[in-house]
Structures are given as C-alpha cells and as structure tokens.
Amino acid sequence: MSKTKYQDIILTIEGQIGIIKFNRPKSLNSFGGKLMAETTAAMRELNDHPDTVFTVLTGEGRFFSAGADVRGSGLDSDETYANDAEKKLAYITRFAPGLEMLRSIIDHKKVFVVALNGPAVGGGAAWFTGSSDILLASTSTYLQINFSSLGLVPEYGSAINLAQSMGVHRANEMLMFGRKLTAEELQQYGMVNHIFPAEGFQESVKGFLEEQLRTNDGKSMIEVKRLQNAPLRDGRLVAVANAMDALAERFVDGAPRARFAEKKKQLEGMSSFFLCYCWAC
User: Fold this and answer.
1) Most exposed: 11, 25, 79, 85, by fewest CB within 10 Å?
2) What is the C-alpha to C-alpha distance for residues 124 and 119, in angstroms, rounded to an integer?
3) Which domain does 160 fall in, by range?
4) Which residue ranges run through the membrane (predicted)?
5) What is the C-alpha separation between 113 and 129, in angstroms, rounded?
C-alpha cells in the first residue's frame, strides 16, 4: 500500500502491479478536486517504486472518466482581462496541471496500462488512451470526444497520440465529428488490446497482468517500452505544448464560452451528472 493519503484517487500496490484508481464516482470521475494533482503524484510514486512493472490507471464506479468539471475548472469564468496576452497567460496557467500530468505519463518508466472500466468522454477519452502502452476495456466502454462541438481543440497531444494509435482518418472522425466508438470498434481499429466483461472487470485486468508477469520477465517488458517510446518522447511533449497553446487561443477568441453556457443550461437539474464541458449529450 502507498504511504501517501489521497483524497480523489486510490493507489494500491500489489506485488509488481501498481493501480491508480480515479475515485470521484459521484461526479463520474471528472477532473475536479485534487484528481489531476494526485494522479501526477501517484505516477511519480510508482515511477520510483523498486518492484512494480505495471502501472494501471482505471476508475471507480461505472465511468472511467467524464473529463473536466466546469464548476471546478474556472474555464467558464466571467473574469475580464486587460488584453489578449494577459487572458492567454491566465488560461495557460490553468492548463499547467494537465501538462504536468501528461508529462509524467510520457516519461513514466513502467508499462502504463489504461484499464477502461466504463465510458470515457472528452478529456477522459483523449488524454490517456493514446498515451497508454497497453489499453484494456470492459464491455461497457465507449469513447466520445466532443471538443469541436464546444469550440475546443484536441487537448494535450491527443490528436497525435490517437492518430498513432488508430490511424489519421479514424482519429479525425472521432476528434472532428465527435463520433462515439464502442470497445469492439476500438479493438477492430487496433487501439484496444483486450476486452473483458464489465462484471468483474478489475479482477480480470489484474489476472491478465499477473499472467504476463508469470510468463515474461518484468525488466524485459520495461525495456521494450523504453526502446519503443524513446524516439517518440520529444514529439509527444511538443504535441502537448502545441495543443495547450491552441486551446488557450480558443479561449482568447471566446469561442467556447457561448457553447459552455448552452451546455450548462442543458445539464441544469440533471443531478446524476456534474457539468463537464466534455459531456456528450
């Protein structure tokens, strides 16, 4: 077990498997509270752990993640700025936690496994899936990214990562048009490695990884990851920075603000959902 006490994630270490679990199920594991900062801290902790081979990212409850929580993000703020440069700097500052979380994933030494226990929407679908080394999904999983409908852009390098994972044309359809993709489609596209039943999903993931550890040498698997990712590392970080810049410019233009307001109005009174800017409805 981790010695650090976390509020919005659960970190467990079982033998050679470290598991980070988003733990905001009432908000569909949206990126509010301390979730991003604690995920980054857990990634750092597991990066330095002497025994783990696999780092697994998954979610508690029926969703993997519904993306960013507007009520906690400040992205729909009415704050005024002296000029566009000041406005852009303010938004870039707000995006910094996501930048560091993605950097910690890109530079992570262990085999990074994303285990989609359920649907992932917006940032929940875009940020982690294309950056994973192994992608596992439950039968209840779907991915949907509605950035374009909200006046946004693919965040934190997801345009590049998803294109590398499923091909440019499929990634464009998903990112430009907000097409929803099922777990079966994602497997057909070569993005998802294995699909497990929703019931008992976490146990199936753990069993699958334990079987790999019985069959394969942990250090060798980590070396495969290092050799494969080394030539991609700098390009991925550049893609994260470019996307962060483009996203800030969208907010300078004011494009997302009216769309955010419309989305919030649609979601008012829906007690089972937080107001996530990426929510697909």
Assistant:
1) 79
2) 9
3) 9-267
4) none
5) 9
